[in-house]
Amino acid sequence: MFGLLDADGWTWATIKATFWFLLIIFLEGYVPDRAYYFTVAPTIDLGYNAISPVNLCPAENNVGNRQLPCPPPLGAVVPWQDSPPQLALPAGRTRAGTFASGENLYVVGGETPEGVTASVLSTVVSELGNLDPWQEGPALPEPRAGAAVLNLSGAPYVVGGADTSGNATDTIFRGTVEDGVLTGWEAADDLALPVPLMDLAGAPTGTGLYVFGGRTADGSLSLATYRSDLTTTGQVRLQPWIELTELPLPEARAGATAISTGPAIYVLGGEGPDGVSNLVFYLGLDTEGHPAIDHETERPFGWGVSVAQSASAALPAPRVDHATFTNSGAIYVIGGRDADGNVVTTNYWAVPDAADGTIDRWLSLSPTDLTQPRQSAAAAVVGPHAFVIGGSSGDELHASSVRGGLAPQPPFFRLGLFGVTVPALSIKGEIGQQLGYIVAGSAALGNFVLLVIIGWMYSHKAETFRFFRWVTRGRFRPPPDEEYRY
User: Which residues make Cβ contacts (< 8 Å) with residue 232, sequence separation at least 6?
Assistant: First the structure.
């Protein structure tokens, strides 16, 4: 190497051996791997793209003049799109719930211009996120609005809510589902709430249901936490509700939302004793969906409060009557009403820590805000699409819905300091996989043949030099024989 090393020494021999060792790994490992993913993946990384100042994203990430950053932040949604008039609800509807079963989506109960309704509307969602026109589905046994509509093991439960007189109820309606289609409802009299509640929050876990807060029959705010567990023996059914007297909410709440992400349940915003709040309450769960226990005291750890833990865990601004959903561990708070009573368009989201459920920040991007202000809307997730349906902007009830994509496309081209990302063939299905194996195997075989040829050339230098001289018609002049013969 430029005369710095002894050609017959161990240092130069080690450098050469390391070079050839890494080259063999590159040719027989890295190149076939990249060849396979070039066939089946939409993009492939060449090198290590630690820092990528140049990024190009697909146009599908943008809607009109609303454009996502490139690359999109974790948890960002593709900007919301308004549904066409042909796909509007039959009438404006607010304070409803949703239930999704496969490709079937239902809007349950709510309040229309005629008052609280028992109507259940159904539609079918295509793979592209398009809706069929709404149809009337099986109606509830009684009208309900402001209820908690929860999905447990593929069956919907309508918990509490207001009746046609606007009074809180303690009823539970359980839906019957056959082959993914909602076929009817039954009143679960054995599951009545301990007290009537409306505008309550609720969340399912793997082993039962939770409800939090709400308004009682006299209009006061509740801070109670109730749980109903699935039976573990015999026929699988929910047991009667029990109040978790050791785990009341830190403050009374109504108009809040609750979400379960596995390791924790979150109660988000809502109206408290001091008005509309931005606080987030956090309850850690064990592997069975029960409140986590401090094994030293044998008592639940209890609720965490965003301000007490970290100001960044609180919502960026107070919200009540907002829509909430979760997807791939991220939590979304959509629209609602702020502390001044204004209906807003904001879209806040956070990605809690997967291990302990803590939230270190909430994100917001103006391109991902709703197209118009909505409060008391219903939210649903079907496949890679989210829907916000109905709601109101104050005095006007909305019959329209908006759709947002939950899987923004990554950049198709990235140029970094140590690598590049380029488009690939993205051949899907079994055909793509088999073609990928063929391409990868061919690359490995071709590189192996190349290595054999190189090895033969190094072992037969005289013949190799004569071949190059013949190919170049004498323009290549090999060194004297004694310099390459052993």
Answer: none
